């Protein structure tokens, strides 16, 4: 008998985690038997129970037995579960550190898709990058660069790509949110000694000449956008604001509405007229009619 006990003990010692396995089997057997005994006692004590009441007892006993089994197994395997959890946490931390940038790029792509921040064909500016989006994938966005000078709205002929992780930390400006039309604005620094009253009317003349043919159509379009998307849309008429800056220059803030494809042309026409007027004022040359 002693030899048999020793053999059984040696066999159990050779099995990894033998006490836990034995205790688990005993626990499961006890839970199953306890549930069956309890049900038999309840049914015997209450033979008047209907089918629905008996079914309710079966379901309740099953759920309670399941919870008891899970709780008991958790207590039996607590040490192993803790070690496994620590290993998984360490593995997860190492994985996150190794793939941090990829995860951030995927998160940026998800944010862009959910918020519909931009799509192919949109004009956007993020950080110091400005261009028209030509391709989007899960990790990066490719766009045709506009510039390099921000006052030049033409394509530079270069492409620029940025990781989508920038969408989590950088603000994005999207120009064509109003569809095929855009409300465009830019600043013109002016030497403080030049009279703005001699400059602004000439710039208004250029803006009116270029923007007037589209004003009515853009106005109707903005009203439709406001009704459909509940956007507060800006006014269609061109505006030039005068903003003090420092003791050397002040700023002319120019804003106008136009078709997306015409804004660069209109901006350049305004800048050309400003350069001409500035040259005449700085050199004391008499005023001439604005070029149409």
UniProtKB/TrEMBL annotation:
Has UniProt tagged this entry with the keyword Acyltransferase? no
> In terms of one coarse class, where is the protein primarily found?
membrane
Q: Does the keyword Protease apply?
A: no
Which InterPro entries does this UniProt record tie to the protein?
LSM_dom_sf, MscS_beta-dom_sf, MscS_channel_2nd
Listed transmembrane segments = 20-38, 59-78
State the superkingdom. Bacteria
Q: Which Pfam families match?
A: MS_channel_2nd (PF00924)
- Domain Mechanosensitive ion channel MscS: start-end pairs: 107-172
Q: Which UniProt keywords apply?
A: Membrane, Transmembrane, Transmembrane helix
What name is this protein filed under?
A: Mechanosensitive ion channel family protein
| Naturally occurring in which organism (per UniProt) | Kingella pumchi
List the taxonomic lineage.
Bacteria, Pseudomonadati, Pseudomonadota, Betaproteobacteria, Neisseriales
């Amino acid at each position: 008998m002693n030899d048999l006990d020793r053999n059984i003990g040696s066999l159990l010692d050779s099995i990894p985690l033998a006490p836990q396995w034995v205790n688990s089997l005993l626990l499961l057997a006890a839970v199953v038997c306890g549930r069956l005994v309890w049900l038999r006692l309840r049914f015997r004590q209450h033979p008047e129970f209907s089918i629905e009441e008996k079914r309710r007892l079966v379901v309740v006993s099953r759920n309670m037995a399941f919870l008891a089994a899970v709780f008991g197994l958790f207590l039996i395997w607590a040490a192993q579960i803790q070690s496994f959890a620590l290993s998984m946490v360490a593995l997860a931390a190492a994985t996150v550190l190794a793939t941090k940038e990829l995860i951030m790029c995927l998160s940026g792509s998800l944010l862009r898709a959910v918020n519909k921040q931009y799509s192919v064909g949109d004009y956007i500016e993020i950080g110091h990058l400005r261009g028209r989006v030509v391709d989007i994938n899960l990790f990066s966005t490719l766009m045709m660069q506009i510039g390099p000078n921000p006052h030049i709205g033409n394509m530079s002929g270069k492409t620029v790509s940025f990781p989508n992780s920038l969408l989590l930390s950088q603000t994005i400006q999207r120009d064509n949110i109003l569809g095929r039309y855009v409300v465009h604005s830019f600043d013109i620094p002016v030497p403080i000694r030049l009279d703005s009253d001699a400059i602004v009317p000439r710039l208004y003349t250029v803006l009116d000449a270029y923007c007037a043919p589209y004003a009515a159509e853009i106005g109707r379009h903005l009203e439709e956008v406001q009704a459909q998307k509940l956007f507060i849309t800006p006014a269609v008429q061109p505006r030039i604001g005068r903003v003090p800056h420092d003791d050397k220059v002040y700023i002319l803030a120019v804003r106008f509405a136009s078709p997306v494809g015409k804004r660069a042309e209109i901006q350049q026409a305004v800048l050309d007229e400003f350069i001409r007027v500035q040259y005449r004022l700085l050199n004391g040359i008499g005023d001439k009619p604005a070029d149409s």
